[in-house]
């Protein structure tokens, strides 16, 4: 055996032992250090992570330093724009996020067992449903079950029920995964609306062609909803929108402000006497709505009561029987 082969073998052994030491050190680091790493990645600074976690900035700095020592690599570099993550930090982000999600799921699961309905239930819904519709349902739930804690995620992005990003999700498409439990609550109708004073100034269109003379409010990026609506209403396309936003809440705010004509849930519009429906016999788009959760949660009492309450509430809302009507 040559001297170079011997040296090469020694280096491989040394590298192996170094990796083993780093791995063991990483194994000894508590979950709170990875939670800190995730917060720094999200906030972009030690001070921001400290505020988000309710910790002191020196403690956050020590957690990062310990992780860097354990892995033998820098995790952040300082720039004028703040802390920039290195490749090493970005490679750890997914694992830290998985640990965060698992810890949250374990906490929710553990807290949901007992003699009372208690613990955390995480719900996702579209922006409009989450902000404009669900708060009343959550008030009713908390009055009935005061030990419940609800985490509401208003987002148009589909949350992964199989990976337990959330416990319960409200969706406008039927779920396809067999592992999910789903209840259809009905079709929530979408119509065109404008504020009365806007129509008083600009007139009320009576045909789709007359919409071209109006300020139309719609999406910026093409969406599944826009593509589906276009199959029935070819005049409702991105090019005609004078005001564009991918936020449903922003679109609704512009309609309410009298900026022009845009879409709104008819049940929601009934709550606002200033809103007037436009082309009701031409533009009526039903959104089939489902309440879904992972099948493994059927044995969770807290998830079941929330699931059933949301189904009942949204069935009434879809049928126009909500308390604001």
Automatic annotation (TrEMBL):
GO terms of molecular function: DNA-binding transcription factor activity; sequence-specific DNA binding
Keywords: DNA-binding, Transcription, Transcription regulation
Domain (HTH lysR-type) ranges: 29-86
GO annotation terms (biological process): DNA-templated transcription
Any Pfam family matching the protein: LysR_substrate
Signal sequence bounds: none
Similarity field: Belongs to the LysR transcriptional regulatory family.
Protein name: Transcriptional regulator, LysR family
């Amino acid at each position: 055996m040559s001297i170079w082969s011997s040296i090469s073998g020694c280096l491989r052994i040394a590298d192996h032992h170094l990796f083993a030491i780093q791995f063991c050190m990483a194994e000894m680091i508590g979950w709170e250090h990875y939670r800190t790493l995730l917060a720094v990645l999200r906030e972009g600074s030690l001070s921001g992570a400290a505020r988000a976690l309710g910790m002191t900035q020196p403690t956050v700095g020590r957690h990062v330093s310990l992780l860097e020592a354990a892995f033998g690599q820098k995790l952040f570099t300082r720039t004028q724009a703040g802390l920039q993550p290195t490749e090493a930090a970005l490679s750890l982000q997914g694992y830290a996020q998985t640990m965060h999600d698992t810890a949250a799921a374990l906490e929710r699961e553990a807290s949901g067992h007992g003699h009372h309905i208690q613990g955390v239930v995480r719900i996702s819904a579209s922006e409009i449903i989450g902000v404009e519709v669900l708060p009343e349902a959550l008030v009713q739930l908390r009055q009935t079950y005061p030990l419940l804690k609800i985490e509401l995620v208003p987002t148009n992005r589909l949350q992964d029920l199989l990976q337990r990003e959330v416990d319960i999700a409200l969706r406008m498409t039927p779920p396809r995964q067999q592992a999910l439990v789903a209840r259809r609550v009905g079709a929530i109708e979408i119509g065109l609306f404008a504020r009365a004073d806007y129509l008083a100034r600009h007139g009320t269109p009576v045909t789709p062609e007359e919409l071209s003379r109006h300020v139309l409010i719609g999406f910026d990026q093409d969406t599944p909803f826009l593509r589906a609506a276009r199959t029935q209403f070819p005049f409702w396309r991105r090019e005609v929108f004078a005001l564009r936003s991918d936020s449903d809440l922003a679109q609704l705010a512009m309609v309410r402000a009298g900026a022009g004509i845009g879409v709104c849930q008819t049940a929601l519009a009934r709550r606002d006497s200033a809103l007037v429906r436009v082309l009701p016999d031409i533009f009526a788009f039903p959104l089939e709505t489902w309440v879904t959760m992972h099948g493994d949660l059927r044995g969770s009492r807290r998830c079941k009561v929330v699931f059933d309450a949301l189904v009942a509430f949204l069935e009434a809302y879809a049928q126009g029987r909500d308390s604001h009507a």
